[in-house]
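Handoff note, outgoing to incoming analyst
You'll be picking up this chain. Sequence as last confirmed:
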Amino acid sequence: ARIDEAVEEFAAAVNDYSVRALGDAVTDLARYGNEYIQRNEPWKLVDEEPAEAERVIYDCVALAKAIAVLFEPLAPEKSERLWAQLGEPGTVHEATVEAAREGPTGDLSEPTELFEQVEDERVEDLNEKLEARVAESEDGDGDESDDDGGEADGSAADENDDDTDDTDMTDIEPLSDDRISFDDFQELDIRVGRIEAAEGIEGADDLVKLTVDLGAETRTIVAGLKQLHDVSDLPDTKVIVLANMEKAELFGVESNGMVLAAGEEADLLTTYEDAGPGTKVK
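Most recent structure output, in case you need it:
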């Protein structure tokens, strides 16, 4: 039952395009697994109640398998290692969400740690850097306030305009300080596409199955547009597609690419000149 709840939370996160919610669904399931094994203590049952010990261990392995499946979109390498340790056939990258509900079928191998422990010194160092950055940001805000205070000749209308601008900016995420190289950007295969067909996906509130012409080929792409766009209006729309996005299976449909959109309303990125399907964005 707990695995079923996690699968439902995972599906809701995918529908909402929420990476945070998807991660929470997996970590909550892992937390439950930790509590479950600590509460039942199978190592104490092996001699007195071997059948009960076997059941508890089986449940724990089933939880681990579900975590491998649901965590794959966020941590594909770690999920593949866990899948292999569980002795499951094939690769976790080809497993569907329904595999999370299926019991374990493989033979366990010798487990190894998937994640290295972060030492306390490293945590303290990161906290100090974070605190310094926060303090620097607050100092910068204070300097701006002082500068604004020295300009006493502004009109009330100007002040109102400033307030409006500040309000509008509160919903904008700050620009990332993390930079990528030009070579990294070149590895992104971003293309102009044209939607040829669009239809809703049964059981998915927000997802739409798109058939997209990318010039050299036509692909199926799943996008969370159903609640934000009239599906019947999507055909013939030119869109921008990340063509070398890893494939993913959502509600039984394989998505081969990602349609790019801006903001909570999924404002579709497009082109307004003559660039045809397959044109590379660079």
